Amino acid sequence: MSHDSHPHPHPHGDGSWIGRSVPRVEDDRLLRGNGRYVDDIALPAAVEAAFLRSPHAHARIDSVDVSAALAAPGVVAVWTGDDVADLPAMLNKEELRTPPGLAELLDPVVRMTPMPLLAADKVLYVGQPVAVVFAENRYLAEDALELVDVRYSPLAVLVDPERSLTPDAPLLHEELPDNTAVTVAARVGDPDTAFARAHAVVSERFEAHRYVASPIETRAISAQVDPYSGRLTVWSGTQTPHRLRDALAHTLGLEPAAVHVIAADVGGGFGQKGILYVEELIVPHAARRIGRPVLWREDRNENLTASSHAREQIHRIELAADSEGLIIAVRDRITVNFGAYNMTGLVVPYNSLCHLLGPYRIPNVDIDVVGVLTNTTFATPYRGAGRPETVFAMERAMDRLAAELGIEPEELRARNLVGPDAMPYATGLVDRSGRPQTYDSGDYPELLRRAVAKADVQGVRARQRAGARDGKYVGIGFAMYIEATGLGPFETARIDIAPSGRVRLAIGAPSQGQGHRTSMAQIAADAIGVPFDVIDVVGGDTEATPFGVGTIASRALVNAGNATHRAGRLVREKIVEAAARRLGVDADGLGLSDGVVASKEPGGPSIGLAELAGRAPLPGTPEPADGRYGTEISETVHFRPPGFAVSAGAHAAVVEVDAHTGGIEILHYVVVHDAGNIVNPMIAEGQVTGGIAQGIGGALYEEMVYGPDGQPRTGTYMDYLVPTSSEIPDLDMDETFTPSPMNDLGVKGLGEGGAIAPQAVLAGAVEDALRPFGVVVRRGPLSPSRVRDLIRTADRT
């Protein structure tokens, strides 16, 4: 990144920590092998669970016989659907909730499909849990699974979401009138008239294909009951520990205070671990019923086939433009494959809807979204959560419109961008919270200008004019996006000053590699006025912060960061006031820096934080002479964002495509992003890099493939291809800074941003390279075989 040429602003405190590339404090422990993942937590006398999963995509369960499994060596218990029938079915209630404003303005349909903890009557996808074995170890549990005898009667299978919408399609959920889970539509202006008078119209069908988050650490959960208090403690790799706690309390009939959830170290979440799963309810329930600790960890096949999938969408999109290339209208009919259950409602469909316009000024809009149920594994948010899919459709449509008008793709984009003088910019749509959608700040033309300059468009065009070399064709692509970050409703931060003078910061948002222990400590150090290395950060522990939401939706820095900042400023005031009482001076005459409260006058009195916190006097009482502690110095803040902080970016890619083999080499990848003020540039660069790597994986390699019988065909890493570091090119990064007015720190989220544009930009670059063949890229991944198919079937006219 060009940090030297674009220095990070330091708008808060003395600016000594915010904006610095402080090395991550968590890395020393992790690199030395001292991480504490769920599987590292050894609970004495623990039993291990293994789940029997459906081999059918759609079938009636005629009978389940567990007698042989119960008699197997080491088996403690075997449960079927009948054994958990007294527990409520699972719903991701918070994710399924429709904000009142959105409900009132758009009247969306969101149908609930509660998922049984263990299927008792019918299975709806391959991998659905039917029974669970608890045994002395996982090996014995797996052996016993083979002895469970389940008889099925197969039913008709639906894999294609468009087929699922036809009138004669079999119903997945008999209580519903059809296979529709969600519908929502939005209109702005008069799109019909705009299309009728347009100079040019392009109509396309683009597909975002299905793939999987596939974190290095698969899902895991461990639970035990305190024999003295009866309190349930749960260790999980969840991204949302407070939501898991509340769901467990509801499911098991407990008070939330009787459940303690700890988010251990997490080896990647990416949204897949941000929702509730039936395994997370069954394992703690088993710990209570069996009376012993219980552990379950997922194997890779389970993760690929039975943990949530993502991305699969169909866009029937049209763009209308005038003779100058100004877009006057967009129309899109979006079909989202939800899989077998509606897990997260409007989250992905509405993210796609309200991010379709991107950074472009489009006055007339007609978008209709339907979420469809099929006999595939349920789909939920994955890094980007509906944005990569809709950006793929819009940016591909922009490229097709540019070709129709004979305008360079980057020039068409430049003509239609919202300018910085228009900020804050109202799109006319409604955002996910139900308020008018507004872009708070940004300079989108500058993002594009920098990307174009770095990409060397003229050099690429000159090479194209020179012709292919050895059957290798060069192309360039561009893609832009916006991302509404900082999703509410709130996040919590609590700061306590220990008698030793150390600072304990507890936040509701756990980390899955984002570097919270470093960046949040930087914010706290600046806000309080203490050294960075005296701050201890605890995240994702429901005991440390009784209220919280979690680390999803590019929200942690915006919400937990600003809660930390505000709590730190309040604690600073308390420290100075306590020092004034101790020193017998006026608080206005004191300053706090580097952990020392000192008089602003030279030679005046001072006191260190350890001495002050260790013997803090009670307000209005004389100084205690016996060393006893006084009142604590602490503060808790729940930050509620007033609106979304909108990040943005421009990507450019130059590729070389081998027409003989279909192989693609990325020659140059440019990203210019804007995430407001940056707390830690090194961590920010790592987040953007990781997102781009996952986006490249989706663009070129990864796909979860189902056969027409609903059987997953890419259930292992032998078939499901993920990129390694050797497949990810060096990235040419730059950034702009437009602070957000929506929060005190001026920050915007960037955890998901890097993953949003790669599919679109690489598709555009490949299409540009293969222009001599008449290729149009309408879906990915762009594997060698797919590229060869595109060349063979292209229209060369």
Notable characteristics:
disordered N terminus; globular; 27% helix; alpha+beta; 797 residues; 21 helices
Structure write-up:
With 797 residues, the chain is an alpha+beta fold. The strands form 8 sheets. The protein has a 7-stranded mixed sheet with strand order 3-6-1-14-11-12-13, with helices on both faces. Helix 12 (387-405) packs across helix 13 (409-416). 55% of the residues are buried. Residues 1-14 and 624-630 have low confidence and may be disordered.
Q: Quick gist of this model?
A:
The chain has 797 residues and is of the alpha+beta class.
Portion of residues in helices? 25-40%
Record field, number of beta strands: 31
Please give the radius of gyration in angstroms: 28 Å
**Main beta sheet, described?**
7 strands, mixed
Spatial gap, N to C terminus: 43 Å
What's the shape? globular
Q: How big a fraction of the residues is strand?
A: 25-35%
Counting helices, strands and paired strands, the structural category is: alpha+beta
Mean pLDDT over the residues: 94
The spatial strand order of the largest sheet comes to 3-6-1-14-11-12-13
Separate helix tally: 21
**Low-confidence residue ranges:** 1-14, 624-630
Topology:
Elements: H1 26-31, E1 47-53, E2 59-65, H2 67-70, E3 75-80, H3 93-96, H4 100-106, E4 109-110, E5 122-123, E6 129-135, H5 138-145, E7 149-154, H6 161-164, E8 180-188, H7 191-196, E9 200-208, E10 211-212, E11 220-225, E12 232-236, H8 241-252, E13 259-263, H9 278-290, E14 294-297, H10 300-306, E15 309-310, E16 313-321, E17 327-339, H11 347-355, E18 364-373, H12 387-405, H13 409-416, E19 425-430, E20 436-439, H14 444-455, H15 457-466, E21 472-485, E22 491-497, E23 503-507, H16 516-528, E24 535-539, H17 556-583, E25 590-593, E26 596-599, E27 606-608, H18 609-614, E28 633-639, E29 645-658, E30 664-674, H19 681-700, E31 731-736, H20 758-769, H21 784-793
Parallel strand pairs: 1-14, 12-13, 17-18, 23-24, 30-31
Antiparallel strand pairs: 1-6, 2-5, 2-7, 3-6, 4-8, 8-18, 9-16, 10-15, 11-12, 11-14, 16-17, 19-20, 21-29, 22-23, 22-28, 25-26, 26-27, 29-30
Helix pairs in contact: 8-9, 11-12, 12-13, 12-20, 16-17, 19-20
